[in-house]
Specification:
The complex is a heterodimer of chains A (114) and B (116). With 114 residues, chain A is mostly beta strands. Helices cover 0% and strands 52% of the residues of chain A. In chain A, the strands form 3 sheets. In chain A, strands 2, 5, 6, 10, 11 and 12 form a 6-stranded mixed β-sheet that branches. In chain A, strands 3-9-8-7 form a 4-stranded antiparallel β-sheet, with no helix packed on it. A two-stranded antiparallel ribbon of chain A has the order 1-4. The radius of gyration of chain A is 14 Å and the shape is globular. The N and C termini of chain A lie far apart (41 Å). Chain B is mainly beta. In chain B, the strands form 2 sheets. In chain B, strands 2, 4, 5, 6, 9, 10 and 11 form a 7-stranded mixed β-sheet that branches. Chain B has a 4-stranded antiparallel β-sheet with strand order 1-3-8-7, with no helix packed on it. The mean pLDDT of chain B is 92. Classes of the chains: A mainly beta (114), B mainly beta (116).
Chain lengths: 114, 116
């Protein structure tokens, strides 16, 4: 079974600061990787995803993530955060070609100070 | 609103009572998922349907839990004899699966269950 670790539970940044949220997964096979975001009072939304190909994937709102297979990592980055990026961010993984279920990390709460 | 809708938004019940939640997916979506999320944790997979067939169930889904999707459209999740440990946000998601790897889940806002 796969598992996902997000080591930062709460990150506080000032506007214009750069962001990097860590995500590590554990699984022996080929995986699909996702970042979801949940803005205050809203439902979970897909930010970006990786299935294959270029390990650097770009998502909505200027976010990007890099898949490093040797490190089992899929860290989320943004060069300059805005107050509107305040939200909870979840990393998720599922195994390619088998179970459809997503395994989520425990989430990182990002607070951006104006 | 053409997204995934869940009803009710909040449910408060006493221990031992039965509760039922409803999920209406995006109309053309053939897959429907149920997840559970507790405070400080990410969503945990419970079960999913492809059309009306329930194809996978998590070990988290005890015998007190049952889910249905009778006509391949809306789904219900019933919890019998609720326990305080059932208190959580129950999330529904749907997707249009076409056999490829590129499946995108759309989540509803969830039903918050509190068992007293």
């Amino acid at each position: 079974a796969q598992s996902v670790s997000q080591h930062n539970h709460h990150v506080i940044l000032s506007e214009a600061a750069s962001l990097e949220l860590g995500c590590n997964y554990s699984y022996g096979g080929t995986v699909n990787l996702f970042w979801y975001v949940q803005y205050p009072g809203q439902h979970l939304q897909l930010l970006l995803k990786y299935f294959s190909g270029d390990p650097l994937v770009k998502g909505i709102k200027g976010f990007e993530a890099e898949f490093i297979k040797s490190k089992f990592s899929f860290n989320l980055r943004k060069p300059s955060v805005q107050w509107s990026d305040t939200a909870e961010y979840f990393c998720a993984v599922n195994a390619q070609g088998s179970a459809r279920q997503l395994t989520f990390g425990s989430g990182t709460q990002l607070t951006v100070l104006p | 609103d053409t997204g995934v809708s869940q009803d009710p938004r909040h449910k408060i019940t006493k221990r031992g009572q039965n509760v039922t939640f409803r999920c209406d997916p995006i109309s053309e979506h053939n897959r429907l998922y149920w997840y559970r999320q507790t405070l400080g944790q990410g969503p945990e997979f419970l079960t999913y349907f492809q059309n009306e067939a329930q194809l996978e169930k998590s070990r988290l889904l005890s015998d007190r839990f049952s889910a249905e999707r009778p006509k391949g459209s809306f789904s219900t999740l019933e919890i019998q004899r609720t326990e305080q440990g059932d208190s959580a946000m129950y999330l529904c998601a749907s997707s249009l699966a076409n056999g490829g790897a590129d499946e995108k889940l759309f989540f509803g806002s969830g039903t918050q269950l509190s068992v007293l």
